[in-house]
Amino acid sequence: MSSPFTNIMRRALQTTSHGVLATVLAAAALAPTAVAAQGAPSSEPLELGPLRVEDQNQMPLQQKTGIARLPGTVQDTPQTINVITSQVLQQQAVTTLDQALRNVAGITVGVGEGGGAFNGDQFRIRGFDAKDDIYLDGLRDFGVYTRDAFNIESIEVLKGPTGLLFGRGTTGGAINTQSKVPMLDRFIAGTGSIGSGDLKRFVADVNMPIGDTTALRVNFMAHGQEVVSRDLVKADRWGIAPTIGFGLGTNTTFTLALLHQQDDRIPDYGIPTLTPPGEVYAQPVTELVDVDRATFYGFTRDYDDTTADMVTARFQTRTSDWLTLSNDARVGIYSRDFSATRVSCNATCLTNLFDDDPLTHPFFTPGGAASGTGPYSMDLWGIQDIATAVVTAPIGGLRNQLVAGIDVSYLTSRRHFYGFSTTRADRDVFAPDHDFPYSIVPLIAPAAIANTTAQGTDYAVFFSDQLWFTDAWSVIVGGRLDTFDVTYESVTVANTFAEISTNSTIFNPKASLVFEPSQFQTYYFSWARSATPQGTSITNQPTPVSGNVSAGGFNTRDLEPEENDILEAGAKFGLFEGRLDLTASIFRVNKNNAKADDGLGNIISSGDAQRVQGIELGVVGTITEAWSITANYAFLDSETTESLTAGVVGNRVPNVPENSAALWTTYMPIQDLTLGIGATYNGKVFLNNTNHAFVREAFGVDAMIAYQFRQWRFQLNATNLFDRLNYAGSQNGRAVPAPGRAFIFSVGAVF
Is residue 103 predicted with pLDDT exceeding 70? Predict the structure, then answer.
């Protein structure tokens, strides 16, 4: 009988041989025509993706961002940017994006809702929703899936409203992953891993030069795993990412990249938070009674099957010493089939749970509403094209850099909602039975929403100009104008049709004063604004406009955008010729007309005004040739400053930890032997604006030992070394226990 991992490998190889590589090789045959004007090789190093071909070992602050409309380095950019390098990803044996982001203080993870929202990659930056602010190579990644790290070279978290760069959203910031790109060096690399939770993983990375300026790179991944210390929860997936690059090392470059990832998961909706009788505060049930952390309240028939396919084309040409033109385009096609279990505890359940009577037994009731955790299937696709011009011609004898462009995108999603054939069994709080013979059937209740369709278009123009008054002093002024249109439709089983449309025109300005007395010193003061219009979440919310869907139509209580302002002052300072970088910032974010998730996946308008202010500190680099460090700390003082709800003003903003920190450090006591240790901490977070439900602080310690023998690398990782009960994510009335202590052993080689 074949194991799940074997089946993944078989399906992956079949799919690969049936077309993905064939598509890229066909593009290789046609692409010389498209890049015929590439010209003679340039003396400038290629700036393609996260790394420069000539200098792959730069310190993070000295690296290019890899985003055409942000042409400077991380050091030059006047805002907080946390960089997670490929070296850290390898040392920590990172397999997913959410694991990587544990290295960034101030990021928390949400649980996600079943009606079309995330159950995997739902992040909050400085406490603000960032599920629509995930980018791949500067372009939106529209999909609803757990992103594997097999094709990630590095990750940048840009803190604070970045509407000028990315458009709508970005209240707390944006997450940009940089893909692995073709290079002119030939190599074949592979890593196999086994570990706790019956982990089996294999990744391969093959780079093949084709001629003097062309190369093909293919990354492959197969992964199978059960989540440690969580009953039944598992994640099987595979992916392939071929990329071909033309004109490498010349003034004109073109890359064509494909990404295919397929997941087969049992989703974990965690455990409920409960308020014991006579008390005020709610906590996860594992904090209140003797419920084992492994207890899973779902069923064997729960599933979350996703497919993500993306085609990305990136073109850049340096036409002269003062003009660089680029065009980045993406088409993304995604699908998802989903059925999960979210449980609740009614009054009888609460009484039986806390009455200390051994003869009464508490049971959780599984939810099943179509707009909540009911089963559904979803298909969505999106397209985006960004054209950018970078002009470095002086003005009045003063150094100047102008960045201008257009950004056009279109999104559409369609959901089919279903029901359960029978009422699913209540869940025993202490020993739930996972087997129950329910099946998924079409909805039959006349008022139930059977199908929804959402479409959105975004047309934007942007500019940013940096003018240097002296060699050290400069100002940056810019803005972005977006017109965003959304149409959302629903049809009930009884064929009742409802439609709502909203149009938002938003302008996001930014201004910065920058002082750079040397290459390794940057001091800045910035003000920026961003806005989140209604309908931004059409690809990952069942009801992306304000209000709940009802049998008679929509409740359009408030269609105005959220508005966010930020003030930030900061410093980036490099020691030892930039080998060790120190960063510090102080900031304030004001958010008006806040929206919230009602617990069923619907966006509602809370009317709150919120403020998050604080400081962030960071250090990254090498202290000595043998000792490296990546560490950052965030203090977030949050407050609801206005609210329509009595008793909320003055409370902390939901999901904002007051203190958070991350540390990873490695040391080489002898040549080829590396020891690593790290720790993460997130303070207590409240789950609602009344501050009556919370999840306590989380703390974990990880360790690593690796040995390099010729081309071979042997590595052992331990995560959550002290097996502490932490919570990996929280949302409204639920929390997901994080994995317990786990070990991963990996063997890799490069030829």
Answer: yes
* Confidence (pTM): 0.89
Give the burial string for 224-247 (b: 16+ CB within 10 Å, else e): bbbbbbbbbbbbbbbbbbbbbbbb
Token pair of 283 as six digits: 């906590």
Closest to 126 (Cα-Cα) out of 648, 637, 664: 637
CB neighbourhood size of 33 (10 A): 7
What confidence score (pLDDT) does residue 58 get?
A: 54
Asked whether residue 255 carries a pLDDT value surpassing 80, the answer given is: yes
Q: HEC states along 371-408?
A: CCCCCEEEEEEEEEEEEEEEECCCECCECEEEEEEEEE
Q: How far apart are CA 561 and CA 482, in angstroms?
A: 12
Distance, C-alpha 747 to centroid of its chain: 28
DSSP letters along 400-452, please? EEEEEEEEEEEEEEEEEEEEESSPPPPEESSS--------EEE---TTSEEEE
- Alpha-carbon gap, residue 286 to 294, rounded angstroms: 10
What spatial distance separates the first Cα and last Cα of the chain, rounded to whole Å?
34
| Helix, strand, or coil (residue 142) | coil
CA 707 from centroid of its chain's CA atoms: 31
Residues whose CB is less than 8 angstroms from the CB of residue 254 and which lie 6 or more positions away in sequence, other chains included: 31, 34, 35, 245, 246, 247, 313, 314, 315, 316
- Average pLDDT (136-151) is 93
Structural tokens at position 52: 């420069």
pLDDT, average across residues 651-675: 96
pLDDT for position 422:
86
pLDDT of residue 188: 97
Give the C-alpha separation, 254 to 32, whole Å: 10
Question: Which residues are paired to 388 by β-bridges?
Answer: 326, 405
- Specify whether the CB–CB gap between 560 and 570 falls below 8 A: no
Antiparallel, parallel or unpaired: β 303-318 and 252-265: antiparallel
**How high is the pLDDT of residue 445?**
85
Buried-state track 109-132, b at ≥16 Cβ within 10 A, e below 16: bbbbbbbbbbbbbbbbbbbbbbbb
Locate 614 and state its tokens. 């604080």
In whole angstroms, give the CA distance from residue 365 to residue 342: 8
Alpha carbons 526 and 569: distance in angstroms, whole number? 6
**What's the pLDDT score for residue 596?**
54
